[in-house]
Amino acid sequence: MILTPIRRYGAMILMLLTLVFSSEVLAKTHTSTTNHKSHITKTSSKQVSSKEEYSRNSAKSSSLPDLRKYPSGTPRKKAFLRTVMPYITSQNAAITEERNWLISKQYQGQWSPAERARLQDIARRYKVKWSGNTRKIPWNTLLERVDIIPTSMVATMAAAESGWGTSKLARNNNNLFGMKCMKGRCPNAPGKVKGYSQFSSVQESVSAYVTNLNTHPAYASFRKSRAQLRKADQEITATAMIHKLKGYSTKGQSYNNYLFAMYQDNQRLIAAHM
Predict the structure, then answer these.
(1) Which of 64, 138, 158, 243 could join 176 in a cystine, given CB atoms 3.0 to 4.6 angstroms apart?
(2) CA-angle at 254, arms to 263 and 147, nearest 5°
(3) Domain coordinates of the chain in residue numbers?
(4) Is the pTM of this model over 0.85?
(5) Which regions form coiled coils (predicted)?
(6) 8-22, 59-73, 174-188: range with lowest mean pLDDT
(7) Thinking of the domain 67-272, which architecture would CATH place it in?
(8) pLDDT value at 4 more than 90
């Protein structure tokens, strides 16, 4: 008889402990679930931000946008680099692919019709004379020309020549590099700057500039300097190549000094957009 109340009290205590423990487990489970949902929301938010950033960084418009709407200084520079950098990196990637293909074929004995046709196309675009004889391929000239222009150097020159994309020539002609057209070959389209090359897109302007440095006789010393760096197994950088560019401006060495100083001032900003 004495044990019955004790058993009852024990059962009641056990029930209370069970309820308390269950409440704690439920509370922890709810907190854990809430935190998991919060983590998912944050992840989703980051994914949206990444898409927005990609949208901003990709140059959707073929023509140069009006960058004067951005405040001068860093905001405008960033907008300019977001616009032009995809085209510069894409151009150099295409050149690298062709250069690697040439290197892989340099000691090849047999050439298929497709390979021969591709080689002829590369020689034509880079203005390299070749008879078509696969035993007499001008490899040195080809590899001297089919090579990249340092991305940072292209970006710096585009910024310098176009005033970070705000010059009339850049806005009206999509001409980022101050490239003139040959006499008798300048179209007089309304609203365009006369005497200078006109491009349908930023991509076309970048391609023309890179092709110009890689093919024009005036920049032969630039290409030879680049080839020497390759031979010495050294990296092709803006620091190494800016002072090697001769004849681009009538200002001579002072122009190269200006370009190099501009590159140094904006090096981190340019690197952040590569």
Answers:
(1) 158
(2) 55
(3) 1-57, 67-272
(4) no
(5) none
(6) 8-22
(7) Orthogonal Bundle (1.10)
(8) no
